[in-house]
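step 4 of 6: structure.
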Amino acid sequence: MKKIRISSSSLIVSSSNFWHRFSDEYELDFSEYGNWSGALLSEEMNLVDILVIFSSDLNANMNKDSDSSALFFKLLEGKLCKAKSEVVVAFSSWQPDSLVRRSKYDNSNKEFHYWMNTKLNILATKYPLLYKIDLDYELSIEGLSQSFDSRNWYFAHCHLSHSGLRTLSDSIYSLVTSFTKPTSKVLILDCDNTLWGGVIGEDGISGIQLGQDGVGKMFSDFQIAVKRLSKEGVLLALCSKNEEFDVWKVFDEHESTVLSRNDIIISKINWSDKSKNIKAISKELSLDLNSFVFFDDNPVEREKVRKILPMVNTVEPPENILDWPKFLQNLDCFAKSKLIEDDKNKIDQYRKKAKFVEDSSSSNNEMEYLKSIKLKPRFTNINESNLMRAMQLIGKTNQFNLRTVRHSQSTLFDMINVNNDSVFLMSLVDAYGDHGLIGLAAIKDISSRIVYIDSLLISCRVLGRYIEYELLNEIIRRAKDYGYKYLVSQCLPTERNTPAQDFQKGSPFTKMERIDLNLTSRERKDLYNYFLENESIYAIELTNYQEKFKEIFNE
Amino acid sequence: MSNKQLLKIMEDTFPTANIPENWMESKLGSPKEWDSLGHFTFLMSIEEYYKIKFSIDQMSEVTTIKQIMEIIDNSKK
């Protein structure tokens, strides 16, 4: 029996009415609540660790720089370096909050949630054994207000209600059971009343329901859901009691069919027993029956297949057929994380790399690590094809945004018209993949010798790689090309741009007073058109500038 | 009838406890497995089964099987 340890930041009720589903296959062990660090530090490796984290337990103020959030991620990464079994982090940050307040900005718990999610995504890419459950999403399906219970919180330090605890248990169950079940590879479909409404042999091609408003539309959507699975690599097979000629007519000729003959890998359209046909399909594809999913509207056929071929996953479609497309989309059996599938043999490589990260406590090693992930930043001017992305970055970037100037297309074009090189985008490729366009910078001149940073922003999902310095390097290369002598800059602090504020204060920037710029009164006046008087202004002298962190960036 | 179900919930909640013949005399602290955490778990299970909801005051005041039975009976009226 596989062991599961559940550790949580506050009480999770362990009574069997919530957890009975596990009892046949798993041994559940609930750690004393609040002691998530114990689980993360534990040397016991042969169990699945589930960490249930409520952000407000980590820190009441949803501050991501808090010690406990930092500690959590530090211990988590330490654990992952050594983990031999899956580690699941289920996390929730929801708290009720005024709609009006949220109409301008996300509240701090939502931001914190987003931050947790991003952080876990990065770790989950690096460590194949890490999985996350976004509890706020799962709980929202039943309703968040239904899922939390303030009585349970004040009486026993348990955030969740009966319904919330059930959702938690179900989510963990679905995920944990997917670890051991093989991914389903084949979807076997009936035809009449499954891929279309009615019976093709009796109703004829114009009589079946497919594409029309109402149920016909549902069958189209069902076919769309099937098609989507096939695009993800699921093999489609037909198993129908019909005349072959009739069935293919729908695929070839019906104007609303989504699936075509080519989508079907194999078909058994005849009058013999379905279990016999399914066995034949398994043989012909040489795929194991336990990777088969069987979908049939007819309960008698389902029951027969279940009896004769219990290893086939015969799914029970919802009673209300209108729910079928959603049902198919929600099936977990096809949805196993692709990363794990493709990278099973890479787990060891990942582990070595992870070990390396763990060992690199000094900044020297951090540089080695950054070198090893082969950062390749690229720069491109604004053009039609990337304009939308540029606007998106300008509109959405909050954390690493030096001045948070929300340019409109026209103010952006004004700058480009003055100098085409003054606004540009940065893209990034590294060992983790192609991140696309993730940064933007814009510079404007004060005078012929002084230029200032109008915008400098980087999408938060790629932070931690020092690429902000390469963006600055590029600004300076461009400024030098145009003959400027000094770069000046000022960060406009917002509640959320702490990373940009820190960047502004650090090297290579120096406070403007310390550099003798010999500002003319005209220059000074122009400068304060853009800069605040009560915030520090920083400057870089361009002629002697040494490019920062050049060694970690690759051409 | 309802008594038997309550006994079953009690046995499920405190699987290691030695529940005596006169289990209807049980209360918070006796058996010892019925501790404060066990109390909450027990009441949650009772809520789930009988489809009732204790107020936060009831949760701290109701500490004996007899009191629990009274609330269950009242909820049926």
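step 5 of 6: annotate
 - Chain B has one domain: 2-12+28-76.
 - The radius of gyration of chain B is 11 Å.
step 6 of 6: archive
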